[in-house]
Write a structure and sequence with these properties.
The complex is a heterodimer of chains A (421) and B (597).
Chain A (H helix, E strand, L loop, with lengths): L1 E2 L22 E7 L1 E2 L11 E2 L5 H16 L8 E9 L7 H14 L1 E12 L6 H10 L3 E7 L3 H6 L6 H13 L5 E7 L6 H14 L3 E6 L7 H8 L7 H17 L4 E3 L2 E3 L6 H8 L3 E4 L4 E4 L2 E5 L3 H9 L5 E6 L2 H13 L5 E2 H8 L3 H4 L1 H7 L8 H7 L5 E2 L3 E4 L2 E4 L1 H5 L1 H5 L4
Parallel strand pairs in A: 2-5, 2-12, 3-4, 5-6, 6-7, 7-8, 8-9
Antiparallel strand pairs in A: 1-15, 9-11, 10-11, 13-14, 14-15, 16-19, 17-18, 18-19
Helix pairs in contact in A: 1-2, 1-10, 2-3, 6-8
Chain B lengths: L5 E8 L5 H11 L16 H6 L7 E7 L5 E7 L8 H9 L3 E7 L6 H12 L3 E7 L8 H12 L7 E2 L8 H11 L12 E10 L3 E10 L7 E4 L5 E3 L2 E6 L1 E5 L7 E5 L13 E4 L18 E7 L5 H14 L4 E7 L3 E8 L2 H13 L5 E3 L6 E5 L4 E4 L11 E16 L3 H10 L3 E7 L4 E9 H4 L3 H8 L5 E12 L1 E8 L2 E2 L5 E4 H18 L7 E7 L2 E8 L14 H17 L2 E3 L2 E3 L6 H4 L2
Parallel strand pairs in B: 1-3, 1-4, 4-5, 5-6
Antiparallel strand pairs in B: 2-3, 7-8, 7-14, 8-13, 9-10, 9-14, 11-12, 11-13, 15-17, 15-18, 16-17, 19-20, 19-21, 21-23, 21-24, 22-23, 25-26, 25-27, 25-28, 28-29, 30-31
Classes of the chains: A alpha/beta (421), B alpha+beta (597).
The complex binds guanosine-5'-diphosphate and iron/sulfur cluster.
The site of guanosine-5'-diphosphate (GDP) has 16 residues of chain B, from helix 1.
C-alpha cells in the first residue's frame, strides 16, 4: 500500500476519526538529525559534522510545523506529548529549544500537562544548560547512557564516559528534572550476563524513573553489521540473550520497574506517554527529516535527506517521501501485535469497538492453536465472554478481558505476533 | 515404386560420444540442412537441451545421391539416450534395418554402447561401427577398434573412422548406410501394418504418431485402427519429416513419417502399437509392443492447498503428450490432497516436476520416490504398494517382494574394488565380470531397484572419477526382508515420511533421518519430538527444542510499519511450510531421506 506521494497528503481531508476535540490527544515528534559523531550501530537518519546547518534546519522545521497548523486534522488536534528525538537534540542550545517550543505552543493546541521529552546525550549538557532546558519547558529527559562499562561505550562508539553519564544524571536531578529515562543496550558481542547485570544494578542504584533496555540490533547498512558479516565478532549466543532478557525483566520488576512494553520499564505512573501513542494507534505528527506521522489509518513519512528536506520547504512543498494507507487486515494486525508487545496486552473490548470484529472471531484458529484447544471446545468462547474466566497457555494468557503474553511468550514475541498477521 | 531406394537407420551411442554431432553432419551433407547455427537439431525440447539428453525420438528424411549416382531416401530415426527410456529406444530400433554404432575413440566402449548394441542386435539390425573423435589427441584408435572388433566379431576393416566435429568420415558413413544396410522388405500388397515408434502431442492437431510402414500403405481419409486399443480413427494427414512436417499423399511400405489420426491424446497413439486398416485389418500386430510400466512413484502435492485443481488439470495436460506418466489422486494426512504419480525413472520424474513448475507455474511438493512393492498378506492376498503408507500392517503382512534390475557396469579395472564395495552396500548380487580388454571390465549385478534409483549413479561416477558407466533393465520381483519405517512428529506418524527399507539398514537409517530432520526443522514455538519407528517400536528419537528467543526491541514511529512488514514476512516464511499438526515442516523435510548420507 506504499506509494510515492503528492505534497501534503492531508490537505482537504474531511473525515478524520481518531482525532478532533473529543478524540484522543495527539503526539508531536520532532527529529533533530545532528550528532557529534556517528555510532557504529546507528541506523537513524542523522549527520555528524553538519552543525552549521542547524539554524537553517530549525527555520525549515518552523515552516513545516506552520503548514500543519493551518490544515486538518493536526491543526485542530490537541497534543499532550512532544518528543524531541534524533539524532542528538541536546546539541541545540536552550535558546533554540525554547523558541522551537514557543513556536509550537503558538501554533498548536498543547495541553497544560504535556509531556515534553528531550533525548540527551551525556556530555552534551552541563548543569546550566540543563536548568535552561528545564525552564524552556522540557520536563522529561531521555539519557543515552547505553552502558556503565567503559569498554562497552568504546565498542558502541559512544562519545561520552561513564562519569559523564553519572554526572549528567546528577545535574539533571539538580536542574529539577523529575522524569528521567535511561537508554541501555544489552547483548553486545562477548558481553556476559554478569556484565549486563552490572549495568542494570548501576541503573537501579541511580534510580531513573524509566528505563529503555534494548537488545543490540544489527541493522543493515551500519558499520557494526558490516563488521559482524566480516566475522570481526559474533553475536552472543541465543541462550545468553535469553538469560539477559529474563534477568532484565525480573530484576527491574523486583525494583518496581515493571515491564510495560518489550523494551520499556517504568515506575508506576512514569510510562512514556509519547511512545504509548505509537503502540495504541493514537495519532502522531512527525516533523523533520525522516519523521513519520500517523492518523486515521494512514502513515506518511518525510524524506531522509537534509538537502531535499530543506529545499522542499524552501519551495513551500511538503517534504514527504511516501505514504501508506493501511488495509483493514493491516490495521487489525497492528492493533494485535502492538497490543501484545505491551504488558496491558490486547484489550478485547477496545479491539472489537475499534476494529468492528472481535479478537475471538478474527484470530479464532490462532487462539485455538495457542491454547491447544479444538474448535469444539467451548473454553475459549467462555473465557472471552466471561471476564472471570481465564485461560493460560505456554505463550499467551486470556484474563480480565485482555490477551497477554506470558513470561515465556515475551521471549518469543515475534514468532507469536507473526501468527496474528 | 519399390523400397530399393529406402534405408531406415538410427545412430546408437553412449551419451556424449557424438551421436547428435554426426546426425547434424549428415543433415548438412545431404543438403537437408545447410550449416546453420541450430546445433543438434534432433533434440528440440528445451529441457532436453539443458540436460544434454534426448527424451523424445523423432525422425528425419534425407535425400542422398550415392557416389554410384543413384538417389536414395535415408530415414534417420533418433533414439532417446537415457536408461529410463529403454523401451522407447527399442521401438525406434525396431523401425530400422540398420544402426550406426558410434564409439568415442578416446573413451572406448561404455555401458550404453553395449546395451544399445544388444537392443539393435535383438532387432536384427545391420551394424555400421564408427569410431568418432579420431581427431582427439587422446584418441586410442587401435585399442578401441580392438574392443569393437571383440564385441561385434567383425573385421577391423569394417570400422569407419570419423571426426563428426570436423565433418571427416561422414561421407563414408552415408555411403555405408546405403551399401551395407538392406532396404526395407517390400510388401506393398498386404494389409496395412505400421509401427508407432514415437508420438507427440500438438495443441492444434492432437496426437501425432511417428510411424514406420511395414506392410501396405497409409493414406489420408483412410479409416485406421490401433491394434492395442481397438480404437478407430480417420487419417487426417500423413507426411515425412524434414525438420518440418512435409505433407504427402501417402506413406508406402518401407517409409517413415508421421500420421495425424485426429486423436485427442497420445494415450491413443501408444509407442510400440501397430496401426492397421479398419476395413482390411491385419490379424497380427507387429511384435514387441508393451504397456509402459512406471517404475518409480512419488506423491505430488500442491504447496498451497487451493492449487489442487490446477495441479490436476496440469497433470491432465502433461498426460496428453506423455502417455508414460501415470497418476491417481492421493490423500495424505500430512499433506492433504494431491496425486501419486508413476514415472519411468528418476529422470522422468524430475522432468515432470520441472515442467509442472516451469510450464504451469505450480509450486509443488514431492515426497520421497519409491518403487512399487508387492505385499502378500497372510490370507494370501497380493497388495501392490506404490505408496509406503499403504503397506499392510505388520500383523496382516506375510512377506514383501521388491523389483530387481540387472545392471551392467563398465569400468576401468582399477575401480573394480570400489564398485564392488558400493554394490555390496546397495544389496547388489554379484553375477560375473567380463573383460572387454586388459583395462576395462563389465561387471554384472542384480540390484533391488530401490537401492539404485536415488544416487547410485552419482556415487558410481564419483568413485570411479567419472569413468564407469551404467546400464540396467528390469529383471523380476524378489522376496526381501523389508520393513516400513515410520516417522513421527510429536507422536503423530507423518504418512508422507514413511519409507520402506531393508531390515538390516532400518536402524541406522532411522537414526540418520531423525538427525537430518532435526537439522531441517526450524525451531518453533513448541518443542518437536522426532521419532523413527518400526511398527510400535521406536528405534530412534531426537528433539527439536522450542524457540528460545525471538524478539526484536525498538518499535517507535517509523519502526511500526517496518516491523509489521518484518512480521508479515516471517509469517510468509511459515506459510511456505507444511502444517502437520502443530508442527511446521519445511518442504525439504519431505525429501530428508534423500539427503541422508
Ligand atoms: N573432438 C571432437 N569432439 C566431438 C566430435 N564429435 C562430437 N564431439 C563433441 O562431443 C560432445 C558430445 O557430442 P554430442 O554429439 O552432443 O554427443 P551425443 O550425446 O552422443 O549426442 C560435444 O561437445 C561435441 O562437440 C569429434 O569428432 N571430435
Ligand atoms: S548519538 Fe544516537 S542518533 Fe547519534 S549516531 Fe549515536 S546512536 Fe545514532
Amino acid at each position: 500500500m506504499v506509494k510515492g506521494c503528492e505534497p501534503n497528503p492531508l490537505a482537504g481531508e474531511t473525515a478524520t476519526p481518531g482525532i478532533g476535540p473529543q478524540q484522543k490527544p495527539a503526539g508531536l515528534y520532532i527529529h533533530i538529525p545532528f550528532c557529534d559523531i556517528r555510532c557504529g550501530y546507528c541506523d537513524f537518519f542523522t549527520l555528524a559534522d553538519r552543525h552549521e546547518q542547524i539554524p537553517a534546519y530549525l527555520s525549515a522545521l518552523h515552516k513545516e510545523l506552520d503548514s500543519y497548523a493551518a490544515t486538518t486534522p493536526f491543526g485542530q488536534a490537541e497534543f499532550d506529548s512532544i518528543f524531541l528525538g534524533g539524532g542528538t537534540p541536546s546539541l541545540l542550545n536552550p535558546h533554540q529549544v525554547d523558541s522551537l517550543l514557543s513556536f509550537i505552543h503558538s501554533r498548536f493546541t498543547i495541553s497544560v500537562d504535556t509531556e515534553i521529552t528531550l533525548e540527551t546525550n551525556p556530555g552534551t549538557v552541563d548543569l546550566a544548560k540543563l536548568r535552561d532546558l528545564r525552564s524552556a519547558g522540557v520536563n522529561r529527559l531521555s539519557l543515552g547512557v547505553q552502558s556503565f562499562r567503559p569498554e562497552e561505550l568504546l565498542f558502541l562508539d559512544r562519545d561520552h564516559s561513564v562519569d559523564d553519564s553519572i554526572r549528567c544524571y546528577d545535574h539533571a536531578r539538580k536542574a529539577g528534572f523529575d522524569n528521567i529515562n535511561f537508554d541501555l543496550i544489552s547483548g553486545l558481542p562477548s558481553q556476559s550476563v554478569q556484565e549486563w547485570q552490572f549495568n542494570l544494578q548501576t541503573t537501579i542504584e541511580l534510580g531513573p524513573n524509566h528505563i529503555s533496555a534494548y537488545n543490540l540490533t544489527f541493522e543493515d547498512g551500519t558499520p557494526l553489521t558490516a563488521q559482524l558479516r566480516r566475522g570481526v565478532f559474533r553475536r552472543p549466543p541465543t541462550e545468553t540473550e535469553r538469560r539477559m532478557l529474563l534477568l532484565t525483566v525480573e530484576m527491574l520488576a523486583a525494583h518496581d520497574y515493571p515491564q510495560y512494553e518489550i523494551s520499556n520499564f517504568a515506575h508506576p505512573g512514569a510510562t512514556c506517554r509519547h511512545n504509548e501513542k505509537y503502540w495504541n494507534g493514537n495519532p502522531y505528527l512527525g516533523v523533520g527529516a525522516s519523521a513519520h506521522s500517523y492518523v486515521s489509518g494512514k502513515r506518511f513519512w518525510n524524506v531522509s535527506n537534509l538537502k531535499a528536506y530543506l529545499e522542499g520547504l524552501e519551495q513551500k512543498q511538503a517534504p514527504i517521501a511516501g505514504e501508506e494507507v493501511l488495509t483493514n487486515k493491516e490495521l487489525d494486525f497492528e492493533r494485535a501485535y502492538l497490543g501484545l508487545r505491551q504488558r496491558s496486552g490486547i484489550n478485547l473490548r477496545h479491539f472489537e469497538a475499534e476494529r468492528g470484529v472481535s479478537v475471538f472471531t478474527r484470530y479464532a484458529s490462532t487462539l485455538h492453536k495457542f491454547f491447544s484447544l479444538t474448535f469444539e471446545d467451548p473454553c475459549l468462547n467462555e473465557a472471552y465472554t466471561n471476564g472471570n474466566r481465564s485461560l493460560q497457555g505456554k505463550h499467551l494468557c486470556l484474563q480480565d478481558g485482555h490477551l497477554r503474553l506470558t513470561r515465556e511468550g515475551v521471549l518469543v514475541c515475534d514468532a507469536i505476533c507473526s501468527e496474528f498477521v | 515404386m519399390s523400397t530399393q531406394h529406402i534405408r531406415n537407420f538410427c545412430i546408437i551411442a553412449h551419451i556424449d560420444h557424438g551421436k547428435s554431432t554426426l546426425a547434424d553432419r549428415m543433415l548438412e551433407k545431404t543438403g537437408t540442412l545447410s550449416r546453420v547455427n541450430v546445433d543438434q537439431v534432433l533434440d528440440d525440447m528445451d529441457l532436453e537441451r539443458e540436460r544434454g539428453i534426448t527424451i523424445k525420438a523423432h525422425s528425419v528424411t534425407m535425400s542422398y545421391k550415392h557416389t554410384a549416382g543413384k538417389d536414395y531416401t535415408l530415414n534417420l530415426i533418433d533414439t532417446p539416450g537415457h536408461v529410463d527410456f529403454t523401451y522407447e529406444v527399442s521401438r525406434s530400433l525396431a523401425a530400422c534395418e540398420g544402426a550406426v554404432l558410434v564409439v568415442d575413440a578416446a573413451q572406448g566402449v561404455e555401458a550404453q554402447t553395449i546395451s544399445n548394441l544388444y537392443l539393435a542386435l535383438e532387432n536384427d539390425l545391420t551394424i555400421i561401427p564408427v569410431l568418432n573423435k579420431v581427431d582427439l589427441k587422446s584418441a586410442q584408435v587401435e585399442a578401441v577398434s580392438q574392443q569393437v572388433v571383440d564385441i561385434l566379431g567383425i573385421d577391423k576393416s569394417e570400422i569407419i573412422l570419423s571426426s563428426a566435429k570436423a565433418g571427416q568420415g561422414v561421407d563414408e558413413v552415408l555411403a555405408a548406410v546405403v551399401d551395407r544396410i538392406p532396404p526395407p522388405a517390400d510388401n506393398p500388397d498386404q494389409p496395412l501394418r505400421a509401427l508407432i515408434f514415437d508420438s507427440i502431442f500438438d495443441s492444434y492437431r492432437g496426437a501425432i504418431a511417428y510411424i514406420r510402414v511395414f506392410e501396405g500403405q497409409i493414406v489420408p481419409g483412410m479409416e485406421i485402427k490401433f491394434f492395442s486399443t481397438g480404437k478407430k480413427f480417420e487419417v487426417a494427414e500423413v507426411g515425412v519429416l524434414q525438420l518440418d512436417k512435409l505433407k504427402r499423399k501417402k506413406l508406402a511400405v518401407g517409409e517413415v513419417g508421421y500420421c495425424i489420426p485426429g486423436a485427442k491424446q497420445v494415450e491413443d497413439t501408444k509407442v510400440g502399437d501397430t496401426i492397421i486398416s479398419a476395413s482390411n485389418p491385419a490379424t497380427e500386430p507387429l511384435p514387441g509392443y508393451q504397456e509402459v510400466k512406471p517404475m518409480v512413484f512419488s506423491g505430488l502435492f500442491p504447496t498451497e492447498n487451493e492449487d489442487y485443481e490446477e495441479l490436476r488439470s496440469s497433470l491432465e495436460r502433461l498426460k496428453l503428450n506423455d502417455s508414460s506418466l501415470m497418476y491417481e489422486p492421493e490423500t495424505s494426512q500430512a499433506l492433504g490432497f494431491g496425486f501419486r504419480a508413476g514415472f519411468l525413472g528418476l529422470l522422468h520424474m524430475e522432468i515432470i516436476q520441472e515442467r509442472l513448475e516451469r510450464e504451469y507455474g505450480l509450486d509443488i511438493l514431492t515426497t520421497v520416490p519409491n518403487v512399487e512393492y508387492r505385499a502378500y498378506t497372510k490370507a494370501g492376498e497380493l497388495v501392490l504398494v506404490d505408496n509406503p503408507a499403504l503397506l499392510p500392517a505388520l500383523g496382516v503382512l506375510d512377506y514383501i517382494q521388491e523389483p530387481y534390475i540387472s545392471a551392467d557396469i563398465i569400468t576401468p579395472t582399477e575401480y573394480i574394488g570400489n564398485i564392488m564395495k558400493l554394490s555390496q552396500d546397495r544389496r547388489g548380487i554379484y553375477k560375473n565380470t567380463e573383460y572387454i580388454d586388459q583395462t576395462r571390465a563389465s561387471l554384472h549385478y542384480d540390484f533391488p531397484l530401490a537401492e539404485i534409483i536415488f544416487d547410485f549413479y552419482d556415487k558410481l561416477k564419483s568413485l570411479t572419477r567419472g569413468y564407469a558407466s551404467l546400464d540396467y533393465h528390469f529383471d523380476d520381483y524378489r522376496r526381501s526382508d523389508l520393513v516400513k519405517l515410520d516417522i513421527m512428529l510429536n507422536n503423530e506418524p507423518v504418512d508422507a515420511l514413511s519409507y520402506i527399507i531393508h531390515k538390516d539398514k532400518a536402524f541406522e537409517w532411522g537414526r540418520k533421518i531423525c538427525s537430518k530432520l532435526k537439522e531441517l526443522i526450524p525451531r518453533q514455538l513448541f518443542e518437536v519430538a522426532v521419532q523413527a519407528a518400526i511398527g510400535n517400536k521406536i528405534i530412534s528419537r531426537t528433539t527439536v527444542r522450542a524457540l528460545r528467543k525471538n524478539v526484536t526491541a525498538k518499535c517507535y514511529g517509523g519502526d511500526i510499519s517496518r516491523k509489521r512488514k518484518l512480521l508479515e514476512r516471517q509469517k510468509e516464511g511459515k506459510k511456505r511450510m507444511k502444517q502437520v499438526g502443530k508442527v511446521e515442516l519445511p518442504q525439504e523435510a519431505f525429501l530428508a531421506v534423500l539427503k541422508v548420507e
